[in-house]
Amino acid sequence: MLVKKWMSRQIISVSPKDAMQDAIRTLKEHNIHLLPVLENDTLVGIISDGDLKKASPSDATSLDIHELVYLTSKIRIRDLMTQTVFTVPSDATIEEAAQILLNKKIHGLPVLDAANRVVGVITRSDIFRVLITITAEGKRGIQLAIRLPDIPGPLKEIRQIVRDFDARIASILSSTEGVADDFINVYLRIYQLDRSRLEEMLEAIKPIGTLLYMVDHRDDKRTIYETGIA
Questions:
Q1: Quick count: other Cβ atoms within 10 Å of Cβ 1?
Q2: Domain-terminating residue out of 85, 117, 132
Q3: Domain endpoint, select from 132, 163, 197
């Protein structure tokens, strides 16, 4: 999945010449956490709500409201912005963007096209939206985690069992993280299953792989078959 599919294309920005109050107002109006700073359509910095909080007078200040307004009106974005900006190209993968956000401990990234123009912003919230989509959270249904031999065949058998029970698979994810060699953890979301046949389906799966956990989102039922797994 590429960043350009999930980024926000509405570019809400400020100028280095804008006052601090302009940035505060813009963040509040749009309920966002960061603003690209553009000068003649060129990215020259970024400012976040954290930057603005650091520059704001303490609650314990002795200044009155008029003095505070005057003070903040004199502070310009160029005095507060971060000039070293982490960015991501629009054709980067979501995983690449997520890795930068995690490593740099930042909330979002300006997205650049091939000409280095800002064409959007990708944030942590967008990453969460991707996660919810690829796991088919909206389908609710039943989540199954199964440890399978990492060879051709077992996953195909699991899929056939689900079909045999007149159910459907909304998503399939897999991981070898923390798994012994020659095995793989597979995570399925199943829906349209007759709940009266759930245990029968699980019994059919057991000879093929090791059940790790089952979560029935409709009935809020959770069964952990093996501890220490994710």
A1: 12
A2: 132
A3: 132
